[in-house]
Amino acid sequence: MLVHDLEKVIGQLLETDRFRDYCPNGLQVEGRREVRRIVGGVSASLELLKAAHQAGADTVLVHHGYFWKGEDARIVGIKKARLEWLLRHDLNLLAYHLPLDAHPQLGNNAQLASRLGLEIEGWFGEQNIAAYGRLLDPASLGQWTEKISAALGRQPLVLGDPNQTIRRVAWCSGGAQGYFEDALQLGVDVYLTGEVSEQHYHLARETGKAFVCAGHHATERYGVQALGGYLAAQCGVDFEYLEIANPI
Fold first, then answer.
1. Same domain for 230 and 160
2. What is the Cα–Cα distance from 125 to 191, expressed in whole angstroms?
3. In this structure, what is the dihedral angle of CA atoms 122, 108, 38, 6, given to the nearest 10 degrees?
4. Sequence-ordered list of residues with C-beta below 8 angstroms from that of 205, at least 6 positions apart, any chain
5. Residue 135 DSSP SS3
6. Are 211 and 167 in a shared domain?
7. Count of domains forming the chain
8. Contact indicator for 108, 63 with CB cutoff of 8 Å
9. Are both 121 and 206 inside the same structural domain?
10. 139 lies in a domain?
11. pLDDT attached to residue 50
12. Are residues 69 and 163 in the same domain?
């Protein structure tokens, strides 16, 4: 499949044109014209690029790519090293940020729902990328924490009474701690995201609502995997997800 045709397929699927994002979505670095083997990962680190080349990929598919708003535009240091590796080995880099958080089936938040026993009832936050709904089997915060730990492979940081009952949940993958107050307005018992800031400890204590910090990387693994699986099934390309460990 030609890389520009693949980009069109993904763009239509994820509706990239409707998002105002902090980086370009789609083909960020052009390599080989024909796509046969895609390696996916969360972030386009140099470690992932080298592993993709070792795995025989011609294309790298990620959630966190390059060229973020406000970053230094110069091609120096680690940016030079990453781009040099891509260009030297003729690798395509495809990156999808907010569109891959928000997709109602393949997105990070939809994929989290399926793994954490959640039913989506609606969307909120910037450009409706965050989800809210209910826990299919109400449980104590402590019990649900154990399920999160098993599903994501890491112990989350939890603010709240482990004995409180959890029924209503809001969540957003990645660094979306700023939506905590918006989530509270929805009447949820707990808000889950990937990162936490100092003030959220006090907000959780004073409202009696729980906050779960489950890891930025850990909450954003599954959209890329779901998208890659879709492309393998629908477009006839080979896909492999590579996990580059990240404790954040």
1. no
2. 13
3. 20
4. 159
5. strand
6. yes
7. 2
8. yes
9. yes
10. yes
11. 98
12. no
pTM above threshold 0.90 = yes
| CATH number of the domain residue 164 falls in | 3.40.1390.30
The answer to whether residues 175 and 210 belong to one domain is yes
pLDDT in single tens digits along all 248 residues of the chain:
999 999 999 999 999 999 999 999 999 999 999 999 999 999 999 999 999 999 999 999 999 999 999 999 999 999 999 999 999 999 999 999 999 999 999 999 999 999 999 999 999 998 999 999 999 999 999 999 999 999 999 999 999 999 999 999 999 999 999 999 999 999 999 999 999 999 999 999 999 999 999 999 999 999 999 999 999 999 999 999 999 999 99
The pLDDT value recorded for residue 80 is 98
pLDDT value, residue 173: 98
Domain that holds residue 205: 115-217
| Within a domain: 107 | no
92 and 131 together in one domain: no
| C-alpha span between 187 and 246 (Å, rounded) | 32
* 109 inside domain: no
* CA angle at 185 for the pair 184 and 190, rounded to the nearest 5°: 25
User: Is residue 35 in some structural domain?
Assistant: yes
Cβ(59)–Cβ(35) below 8 Å: yes
- Structure-token pair, residue 87: 């260009």
Please name which of 184, 113, 100 lies closest in space to residue 148, comparing C-alpha atoms.
Answer: 113
- With contact defined as beta carbons under 8 Å apart, do 160 and 189 qualify? no
197: left (phi over 0), alpha (psi -120 to 50) or beta: beta
| 6 closest CA partner among 242, 231, 208, 246 | 231
Shared domain for 89 and 154, answered yes or no, is no
